[in-house]
Design brief:
eight-stranded mixed sheet, homodimer, Glucose Oxidase, domain 1
């Protein structure tokens, strides 16, 4: 007969043993969740950062993409040039096969004519700087109308079907300055640009003028995509700078009559065939399981598409270049994909996902960089609970590299369709690189999105973080993640 | 007699009770460690961010400080102007008393003459842009000598006492590009600037030329402080840009003879009396316990001292303005201190600490912002284990505001002496705001440190983070922290 003390001791020992077993079972399944990085992973991530910061080529790649090619809207000759450049640059790494995946893209052009003016109280026209929104119809000659200002669609709806008949509808809701994340503030103002023309026309308006989506108080119109609705008459739509938006708003508040005129030659032409550029590096253990990393090669037709998304393109290329330079052989097949047409259709992302589904390819993970080239801060994760936990377990280790912010959220527009097209159980673990968001919209879709506004070290830190993430995802055991 | 199963159950219950008790004890002592922010704290921090982002004045304050006053080296008339401005600005908040605390500061001046040139293989002189290091003696007329290049002091030591007799010693160790944190890279190259002249002279050199401490490859010399040693002959010392440093290094590697000449009129004049500006807001519960928040009002004499440390000054002022605007009454006495003379002596910080010790003031916490106005990422903590744990318990909550990085480390130069002067047990919990470090040294101590290179939203986010930290520190119970 044991006394109670001896019994307690034995019990404690047993409890310890049971706890150990539970830990062992847990660790076996998802070592990463408990332990963070292994020593080998830590060494590899340090080497990745050392290589990219010391001899990375992404900044020089970006210079070439921005300065030798420049803006590259889907359907343009420059987009063709960028596709060729992307293929050559990926081929020059010397690992895996590079191919072009045909994608049908829209072909919208701004045209030669793009001017605007405003008249206050019937006075002489003053020049007004605008940028036609991507996809807008032209004006078919000068179009001038009185301005009616709205902050949201509800205010417009309250006026009824012909509430703004004959007017130029001006949507002037700023991005919310109180939101910490600038991307969230963009999301909250986005519909003015994407649906403003439809809402204006539905209430009798002759055109839509949209406040640029940026926190910056600047004189640059920031363009971007807009859509029409087959049920609603098409009216032209253009962005004005935040400085001009403030001025017009003040005049209207002061009771002045403001008329805005525009003459835009933009038009939609026949679709064109362009391509996603795909570099494929066969996996040593799971050649028929894919990890994709990419961004989008197309940009808007103003600026140079440096942050959006030249940065993501050159960072994605750097992933393969770096892993190859370090003598790494991926376990899963690694694909770098330079998607086309994210800005006005996402046909690159959709086509890629459709082809992957047709071929029954299991994409275990998909990673995107399309939030600019500023200092990386972490990653957004769009995945199952177990996969999210596996990635989040790396948080402490990533904090040492300045990228410890890990949140659930959308990972990227280009890889988005992969989630939709794949059957349940075969949806990829999706991760998006998340840089500092505060400056991104200062540049976004404007003449300011140029190479000079990308910081070399910050771009490289992003490339190193992206490469580290792809490496770590390649180390995961996807049979144990649901 | 209990059977073993019943005994186990009782034991488990007891263990649970003991565990609960331990938790309760722990929570009682340091509620923050377990619970993060209270609901009231969360509301307050949200209000602070809303107020600063929506109606903060720190960016406009910075414009005035940079554009109306500009560079403000200790001892200069501009530093006097800045002290007056600081006092007026703090007074205008309308809470508490503002006073000037006299501080004796060195008075070094660059002088009218500052030029340099280089000759390659005895050719004609080419202009070379330099910036005398702060504290350097002048050259007393032109001084030209052959350049001898070194990456570290060991290499110089290996040549012996007269190893560089008659030479211009060129220290060309770059900031390590492989370090993730730019501040750490600065720390690793700093001694070249601070001790280069002493080391050069100790080996027979006639002057020291120092590669600018920046990751940027630019044409701006970045100045900064240097020190002499009473035992070693004084020789003049100046910074060259990283672009010029590369060029000189390449010439020397190619076996060319490079001579550098300089003519510098800089000199040290008699000490002057200037002041720390102190605004004091009496605490409601602990009027004789102090929380200090500040930065330094002086700057180098080139650029505008926008990031270093105009940002910290206007953010510290914003702390008091914001808490007052929100109707808050601090529990502890809150002092905003605009320290003088951080850059070349730290006499402001030393004087403040000495006076505090003389008066027996218990500074429960000290907070500094002196790492630039870029996007805030977190805080460094210099405190006891229990105090560090209390602050680190806020990490998850702060992550929502983008400032979740919490590391132990130095909190700031100005508040540093408080730690040294205070008796054990009365040392303040010290916290430093930590913004993104990647761009800071691009501007640091150069003509590029101007208002235009500070981002309004990022500056305001830093001010809101700083205000939130001060508020939360005011909520702590310092009798329970060791």
């Amino acid at each position: 007969m044991m006394d109670s003390k001896a019994m307690c001791n034995r019990l404690v020992i047993r409890l310890g043993w049971v706890f150990g077993l539970l830990c062992a079972i847990s660790i076996q399944g998802e070592a990463q969740e408990e332990a963070g990085w292994s020593k080998r992973d830590s060494v590899m991530v340090a080497e990745i950062h050392g290589h990219v910061l010391g001899s990375g080529q992404c900044y020089e790649d970006l210079r070439v993409l921005c300065k030798d090619i420049g803006a590259r809207l889907s359907g343009s000759d420059e987009a063709d040039d960028a596709i060729l450049w992307g293929g050559q640059t990926l081929s020059s790494i010397g690992v895996g096969a590079v191919r072009m995946q045909p994608v049908v893209v829209p072909h919208w052009q701004r045209g030669e004519t793009e001017k605007a003016w405003m008249r206050v109280d019937g006075g002489a026209p003053e020049p007004l700087r605008i940028s036609a929104l991507g996809g807008s119809i032209g004006t078919d000659g000068p179009l001038e109308a009185e301005v009616a200002m709205f902050k949201n669609f509800d205010a417009l709806d309250s006026l009824g079907a012909e509430g703004v008949a004959g007017k130029m509808v001006f949507f002037n809701r700023p991005m919310d300055p109180l939101m910490i994340n600038a991307g969230s503030a963009y999301g909250g103002a986005y519909e003015q640009r994407s649906k403003g023309a439809v809402e204006a026309a539905a209430h009798g308006g002759v055109g839509a003028l949209v406040r640029s989506l940026t926190h910056a108080l600047d004189t640059f119109p920031h363009t971007g995509g807009m859509r029409y609705d087959d049920e609603v008459r098409k009216v032209p739509s253009a962005a004005v700078s935040t400085v001009d938006a403030r001025r017009i708003a003040q005049l209207l508040k002061d009771g002045r009559e403001v008329r805005v005129g525009m003459d835009m030659g933009c038009a939609l032409f026949d679709d064109k065939s362009q391509a996603n550029v795909i570099a494929e590096w066969k996996g040593t253990e799971f050649p028929d399981r894919y990890i994709v990393v990419g961004g989008h090669l197309d940009s808007w037709d103003i600026g140079e598409g440096a942050h959006d998304d030249g940065a993501g393109i050159v960072q994605s290329i750097e992933v393969m270049r770096t892993l190859h330079a370090l003598g790494y052989a991926p376990r899963h097949t690694l694909r770098v994909v330079l998607f086309i047409n994210e800005e006005n259709g996402n046909n690159g992302g959709k086509t890629y996902a459709l082809r992957a589904r047709e071929r029954g390819e299991w994409h275990v993970a998909a990673v995107e960089s399309d939030a600019g080239g500023d200092a990386p801060r972490g990653f957004s994760i769009d995945a199952s609970d177990s996969a999210t936990a596996a990635v989040r377990s790396w948080r402490e280790d990533f904090t040492g590299y300045g990228v410890g912010e890990m949140r659930r959220g959308g990972a990227g527009v280009d890889i988005g369709p992969l989630k939709k097209e794949m059957p349940a159980g075969k949806r990829p673990l999706m991760v998006g690189l998340r840089p500092n968001s505060q400056r991104y919209f200062d540049y976004h879709h404007s003449d300011r999105d140029i190479f000079e506004n990308v910081h070399e070290r910050e771009l490289k830190l992003g490339a190193a973080a992206l490469t580290s993430m792809v490496y770590l995802l390649d180390q995961l055991d996807y049979d144990t993640l649901d």
